[in-house]
Amino acid sequence: MWKRTKNTGQSTTRPCFSIVHQYILHFNEVSGNKSAAIRRRSKTPGVMITQYTIRLPEGKSTPDFQCKPAPVTTQEGKLAVFKAVVTGNPKPDVSWRRTRGNLSDKDKFKQNYNESTGEYILEIHKVTAAETDTYKCYAVNEFGKAVCSTTLGVLDGSTNPEDFRKMLRKSKVEKANGDNNEKFWDAMLNADRRDYERICSEYEVTDLQLILKKLEEKRTARAQNRNKDGVIPCDVDAEEHGVRSAGRTNGNRINRLLQNDSGLHLGDVEEVNLRNRELNQAAAEEDLLPTEFKLSNVDFVIKIQEIKAEERDDALFECVLTHPLPKITWMKKGIALEDGEKYSITVSTDRLIHKLLIKDCSKTDKGIYSAIAGITSCSAWLVVEAKKNPASGGTKAVRKTALAGGAQTDLEKVAKEQQMKNQQEMEKILKAVKAKHAAGKTKEEVSSHSGGDLRESERKEKAQSKNSEDGAATNLDDLECVMEEGKRLKASGLKNKRRTKVGVGFSKATGCVCPEFGDECSDVDQHQTLNTSEHDMPESKRNTKNLVKSVKKKTKPKKVHWKDHTSDPNESASDSEPSDSDENEESTDQKKQQRSSKQSNKSKEELRDPNESASDSEPSDSDKNEESTDQKKQQRSSKWSKKSKKAADDLNESASDSEPSDSDENEESTDQKKQQKSSKWSKKSKKAADGENTFHDDHSECEEAGDVNNSSTRTRRKRLTPLVKDFVIDPGVQFVCGLSDVDAIISEMAELTCKLSSEDCEGAWFRDGKKIFPDDNFLITKDGPIHKLVIVKCIEEYSGKYRFEADGRKTEAMVNVKDPPRFDSEGLCAFTEPLTVKVGHHAIFKLQFVGYKPIKIQWYRDGEELQEDNNTKIEKSSSHSRLLLSRCQRKDTGEIKIKLKNDHGFTEAVSQLIVLDKPTPPLGPAEVMESSASCIEFKWRPPKDDGGSPVTNYILERQQVGRNTWKKIGELPAVPKHRDTDVDRGRKYCYRIRAVTSEGTSEVMETDEMQAGKFAFPGPPAPPKVVSAFNDCINLSWVSPANSGGSRILGYILEKRKKGSNLWTVVNASDEIIKEKKYAVKDVVEGIEYEFRVSAINLSGAGEFSNPSEFVFARDPKKPPGKVTSLKVTETSYTNMVVTWTKPEDKPGEQDEAKGYFVEIRQADCTEWSRCNSTPIIMTSFNVKSLKSMDMYWVRVIAMNDGGESATEELPRYVLAMPLPVRPKFTNKKMKSFMVVRAGNSVRITVNFEASPRPEVTWLKDNVPLTKRVTISNSDGSSQLLIPTSERSDSGIYSILVKNFAGQETFSTEVRVTDDPKPPGPVELEESVPGTVTVIWKPSPDEKRDDRLHYTVSKLDSTKHTWITVADRLFNNKFTVCNIMQGREYHFRVYAKNDMGISAPSESPTWGMEKKKDKFVISEPTNKDCDLRCAPAFIVPLKLQTATAGYECLMSCAVKGNPTPRITWYRNHVSLNTDTNFYISNVFGVCSLKILRVGPKDMAEYTVIAENSQGRAECSTVLNIRE
Q1: What sign has the CA pseudo-torsion 182, 183, 187, 190?
Q2: Angle at 716 between CA 713 and CA 717, to 5 degrees
Q3: Residue 1365 belongs to what H/E stretch?
Q4: What three-state secondary structure class fits 1172?
Q5: Full DSSP string of 1274-1314
Q6: N or C: which end of the chain has fewer CB within 10 A?
């Protein structure tokens, strides 16, 4: 007997996350089944999924993370948020955990769910260093779980400088989080765009897109702050490189575009330079590039597309950019690709088209390829498929280049259009720059004209008072020019903090160019310098202008000429007030100037002229503090002024160097009568402005007059030289096109080329810092603005960095001299010629080469590398290689390639090997073209392999079937067909065919039997179709008959017939058959309706006529009908809708009657219409089927006739695929409103309903939402509530609410979960009234848990032997029994009852015992009664059961016991006594369980338990199911 012992110990199971999950694991454990645990990775990286069951039910799935939580790094004290999106059916339960610690603090850790976004959120409030941890998110349902991890980093927010450890930690955090570091943002604001990625990597910043967005916001905010402070907005680089560099930055944007874009590059260089100068001048005044004119980021006009290529073919990816780039990055699976033997990367001349060619594709090349241009990228798949038609017969298939599928785009045309678009955008920017430049110039002239007279009169008065006090006059020197120009720059709002730095050739004070700084030196715009025109002064003083008029550029070191400068104390403030951020700096500059001027007065007094007029220059009140600081700086920087005595000797020279402009000729004639002074800038002009610059002695001579002790009043002498004319400062020579790196080959020529903006400028070439002079190895040429350096014969020593310098500007490039392998030219020419040999002969290939040793040599045939064997010999040496192919066969024909590779590069050469052989037999089967009584005509296909030589002719032989001899027909031309006219009608013939070439004759190809035809007529053609119809002509067409009768079709006969007539009339003449399969019938009468039929004619004669065509009127084409009207939807469901409409009106001349209709629909999220009916319908209603439930559809109807289709009529609103609204109602009339369930059994409530649209179903227990122990399953028309294992706490009223917008309906069911009650406590009897007895008992222990529990009292009279119920449904604990008779004994029993059953009785003591007279009693021996009670025991146990699916199964056992035991059946420890699917019986101890129809779900462990008051017995078995 097989029996399973019950394990009473505590089982160990995996952690559970829901009640349902616990139930399933417990079920599997007790039933002996092992829970499946399949671990797999999700498509989302970093997510691990554990699947509990091997097979998932249909429509169910394990949990998965659609969006996993991202790592968070935040400041201490702030909020940290993790978000996750989870999928799975049933809906998973989501929980959060951490590695160290728990999430029990509800105030600190808050978990919630956002229904609108489907996100599970974990919020950590006021984070501290203790929350730095790894957090895990769990998603669990009954089929599995998914887990993912994330991290939280907390940055220390402490700012206490005494805590050294926190300071160190803070510095590390700043490095890790560059986006919060000021140094990081300063570097980003001042860097070029191409350096963004490098800076982000240095500061460990990963989100480049977010950084670019913030960077644009910071630039906008900085520009707004400058506008508020009165500062003219300029580029970010102006803060570091001075006022002039701001304009240069905007100009550089244009220059880069002009250099990169070939379309603009081909223009006039002088015009480009002029535009750059205009940009430079305008940018110093204000930023003339508004946001709408800023150059956009590089993007893709045409992205790379998916390519499907066969093995051994090439694949070509192509893309077009919006802006020119010399190079983009090509990547495959995150690895950058380089140009080489496998990949060929090319760029078009306009740098817009970029291509990647993947050579000789194989399966390993399959994958995703990406093209990266800046911060923009695009990707596409390369799919490599097996070769569909591999080469056979010794011929090699030509390698093809696979392109992207779909319509091919002309990339050259697209690139040209984009290039023109860029040019138009540039012209638009330049036009805006010119317009703003002109507007600013006009505004300046108006403002200067309004205040000039007043300032000039004040300067006169102060000059006279100064002369009277000092009695002497002083000359204006260079230092005063510096101070006055500094004021003017500050007034214009252009002076920034430390604008002049090392390497920038620009004077902060004067804005003049310093020649020694080369191309980095820039000029101040004349609009910033010339703030006063000649109209601002009276005519008597026009000759003493305040500002610089001209600076003329020379090829020698530049000289700057200054006019007399008499300043107005209020002039600085009147122009524009300086910003608050510059006040302190300006005051410091003036102190420096003051100290410098005091020290230089002694040297200047030697040049004073007693006849010069005096004037003073007092600072304004608002600038007194600033000027005092500048004057102190002037005193400290007086060293440069000690050599100013040379000014008198150079006055005439300076005047002669300056050339007057046309606008100032009249002024100069007057100014020549007055004395003026002119000065030259020194090469150390920077120290005159910021205390560090110096001036050249021979280029700068200025004079200053003034009192050393009194800096507020000064005198000036008259000029000794005429006024200098105004000139525009030339920005100098610029590189239009710089040098590019060159990879040169040893012993060959290399060339470096650059292009300047001027043709007159000379330059010098350098290699590794040493100047290059022309000789036998180097040729230096100049062709206008183009400069070239030619290395005649490269050697390894010529590798290095080459530089070209011109006018202080330079460009550099690297020359790498390499020695790659190279073939001998003569040998290569001979090698590339195809080699032809005959079968069995030898083929020899050899080549000479040179190159850097060692050289790797490889030979290939049809792309496969050759290895030495019996037929292949390879000779290799340092200078040549030889390939010998012995006894060549036809299959050896193909491409022979040699590949050489060394450390400097690789090369390859390709040749062709052709092995000649006799051809293969012609290909069959032969196709009979004509078989008639007089001839047989047939054709065949040429040989698959002609052996390398063309087929010259064919040899044919014929045999009549039934004979043994073959008759030679002869040799035919190389046309694979033959017409045999020497045949007998009805006889059969066979033919043998051989192909002949110059190499021999092929084997025989024998045809099948061919019969000379009998008289066979062709079959009927298809009915003719009407192509078009007119008043005087009807055009018809038809197709050939399927059966031609064994001979070719000679022509056709066409007949017509009027509608209603039985007479057919031939359309064409009897002697003129119709050759083509179309005909225009002109013999028609207007308005008459005709039909047509056609018959085919072959050599045997005319065949059967076709079926008649459709009737057609002889009239002009009809007009298309009008639109249908009254279009509406009359009925809808989840899958269908009925559309009705009214036919359009018939308006002669405008629209004709409609013959049919088409119905079209499209989904709301789709743009394409789909036609519901392929053929027109006549009815004005249509049932549209196969709709998707709850989808939105647009509907339209088109009318049509012979004239065409009408305009569409569309519904004004979309239609929702759902039935008409139906208020919810319950359809199951037998629903129970009260249920009693034994504890431990399952509770199942099923409710059926009708509703439209699909309603929302809500279950409640006692008006409270259900717990997770309850499972709800909803479908279209029903809802089910399931509690797998019920408990007493599940008792209550369960309500279902079915609701949609049409209404709602509710239903409630009371569920009572209970068990057999326990008996009441001890029973006591009391007599209060004679003749009555009060029965009192202790309540049952179940009374508190079951409000429906009640009691029953029974009585036993000594005179009777039956128990009588005296009271029932008692809800209290006592009862008074009446009619108690004296002299009788009474016994009472109390039972507890509930909805499930009745308990065991509690018996009372005996009542009514009275004393009687003693009687004589004879004592007799009594026998003790035998106790027959015993515990249950199984006499016949259960046996191991095996049943067939679909049949019944009966299992039984025999049990004994006294009292009679109670029998309970279990399946997998779930009671079956109340399950109606099983038939259970107990007949005198024979217990049976019958399963009426066995199914797969019945395979389980079955247990029968017998128990009584004496004990308990158990027996088990297992039911196995077989198919």
Answers
A1: positive
A2: 155
A3: strand 1363-1370
A4: coil
A5: E-SSEEEEEESS--GGG-EEEEEEEEETTEEEEEEEEEEEE
A6: C
Sheet with 1478-1483, strands from edge to edge, namely 1430-1436, 1449-1458, 1486-1491, 1478-1483
| CB within 8 Å of 229: residues ≥ 6 apart | 493, 579, 580, 581
Q: Which residue has the higher pLDDT, 636 or 1421?
A: 1421
Q: Decide if 121 contacts 18 (C-beta within 8 A).
A: no
Strands (E), 545-700: 550-552, 559-561
**d(C-alpha 193, C-alpha 329), whole Å:** 16
Report the C-alpha gap between 995 and 956 in whole angstroms.
9
Measured CA to CA, the distance from residue 1006 to residue 30 in angstroms comes to 78
Helix axes 182-190, 208-228, angle to 10 degrees: 80
Specify the residue for token string 């205390």.
691
Residue with tokens 């020419």, as numbered in its chain: 829
Ordered alpha helix ranges (H), 76-117: none
* Beta pairing partners, 756: 735
Residue 1080 has which token pair? 């225009």
What are the backbone dihedrals phi and psi of residue 260, each rounded to the nearest 5 degrees, phi first? Answer: -80, -30
Place of tokens 């982000």: 200
Nearest to 306 by CA among 383, 359, 376, 365: 383
Decide: residue 65, CB within 10 A, 0-12 exposed, 13-18 middle, 19+ buried. buried
Mean pLDDT of the residues in the chain: 75
Instruction: Give the separation between CA 1348 and CA 1254, rounded to whole angstroms.
Output: 39
**DSSP structure string for 1144-1170:** PP-BTTTB----EEEEEEEETT----E
Residues 1001 and 953: their CA atoms lie apart, in Å, by: 10
Question: CB of 715 within 8 A of CB of 459?
Answer: no
Strand partners, 119: 85, 114
Which helix (H) or strand (E) segment holds residue 1174: the answer is none
Query: What one-character DSSP code corresponds to residue 120?
Result: E
Distance CA(385)–CA(171), nearest Å, equals 55
Task: Measure CA of the first residue to CA of the last residue in the chain; give whole Å.
Answer: 26
Report H helices in 139-237: 164-176, 182-190, 196-202, 208-228
Q: How many C-beta atoms surround the C-beta of residue 1164 within 10 A?
A: 11
Helices first, then strands: H and E counts in the chain:
18, 91
Residue 684 structure tokens: 């150390």
**In terms of pTM, does the model score above 0.70?**
no
Q: Which two tokens stand for residue 1368?
A: 């029932």
CB–CB of 521/535 below 8 Å?
no
Pairing of β 1278-1283 and β 1243-1252: antiparallel
**Residues 1240 and 1474: beta-carbon distance below 8 Å:** no
Return d(Cα 1364, Cα 1350) in angstroms, integer: 18
Per residue in 487-502, pLDDT (tens digit) is 443 344 433 333 333 3
Specify the amino acid at residue 8. Answer: T
In the sheet that 770-772 helps form, which strands lie side by side, from edge to edge?
742-745, 809-818, 800-806, 764-767, 770-772
Dihedral angle sign, alpha carbons of residues 1423, 1429, 1430, 1436: positive
Alpha-carbon distance of 433 to 280, in angstroms, equals 10
**238-255 confidence digits (pLDDT tens):** 334 343 333 433 444 434
Q: d(Cα 819, Cα 904) in Å, to the nearest integer?
A: 6
Query: In this structure, what token pair is assigned to residue 159?
Result: 């700012």
pLDDT > 70? residue 6 = no
Write the DSSP symbol of residue 193: G
| Residue 785 burial (CB count, 10 A) | 19
Nearest to 1094 by CA among 1041, 1031, 1028, 1033: 1041
pLDDT one-digit tens code per residue, 172-229: 444 445 556 777 887 888 787 767 877 887 777 777 778 887 888 888 887 777 655 4
Q: Is the dihedral of CA 992, 996, 999, 1000 positive or negative?
A: positive
Q: Which amino acid is at 313?
A: D
